Amino acid sequence: MRLPHAVAVTAGAVAVATALAACSSGSTDSAGSSSGAAAGSGTAGPATLTVFAAASLQKTFETLGKEFTAAHPQVTVKFSFGGSSSLVTQLSQGAPADVFASADTANMEKARGQALLAGDPKNFASNTLTIATPKGNPAGVQSFADLARPDVSVVVCAVPVPCGSATEKVEKATGIMLHPVSEEDSVTSVLTKVRTGQADAGLVYTTDAKGAGDAVTAVDFPEAAKAVNTYPIATLKESKSAAAAQQFVDFVLGTDGQKELAAAGFSKP
Fold it and tell me: What is the C-alpha separation between 209 and 129, in angstroms, rounded?
């Protein structure tokens, strides 16, 4: 069985306090541009959106934010990325936000159960796990079973995080129990430890490995098909810019958003 480990504290977790103190702290801005189409209908003057999104969406959503504000120059988008479970905790504690995009349906259902959503969530993408190793795969990891070798140090996401839940599903389906040297609170933290050589391998999403380029070597494994994560998105009940929030959700679900997600390696939900 997997040994218990303390969950590492990352920038995504630190964002809890800063998000509660000031909406602009610890966030990534996507400022509106004077170019592009006119502001979309339904926005009553300038609006600022705060989007809480799973860490695995960071690179793609930052690109989508720029495209969205180019088409809606009256809207400024700020992002807060982290583990989906951590983001739900922040929202339940009163962190201000307008949109929530989760890396799994379980954490979105937690948000729904706490009456945080303004409407029904919509599925917009899916993702599967892959093994990431330092460049060149020095430990010679070739399969999921190799991650259980005593000479291989592996890092994974903690179970409450979607990538950790997916890892646990694969373990149960295969009967292969891992003994990670650490369990992280976001997939970004797992990838960082692999990239910096702190582990021989880590379980991340295929999109994260693709986004890392030549910095890591990806090893796909067929058992990953047993734990496909579906990504839902929803507007939030406490949004101060409901119309703009819905426009952002529609943009992610629309042609341009889906094209960008596919380019990043995400699959259809």
Answer: 9
Looking at the DSSP bridge assignments, the partners of residue 101 are: 53, 233
pTM above 0.85, yes or no: no
CATH classification (class only), 11-126+230-263 = alpha beta
Show me where the domains of the chain are located. Answer: 11-126+230-263, 129-226
Domains 11-126+230-263 and 129-226 share a fold: yes
Asked if 142 contacts 86 with a C-beta cutoff of 8 angstroms, the reply is: no
Over the stretch 251-269, which tens digit does the pLDDT of each residue have?
999 999 999 999 999 999 9
The fourth-level CATH superfamily of domain 129-226 is Periplasmic binding protein-like II (3.40.190.10)
Residue where the block lists tokens 């997916």:
166
- Report d(CA 49, CA 152) in Å as an integer: 43
Residue 206 structure tokens: 């295929």
Distance between CA atoms of residues 21 and 242, nearest Å: 22
Contact 26, 15 (CB under 8 A): yes
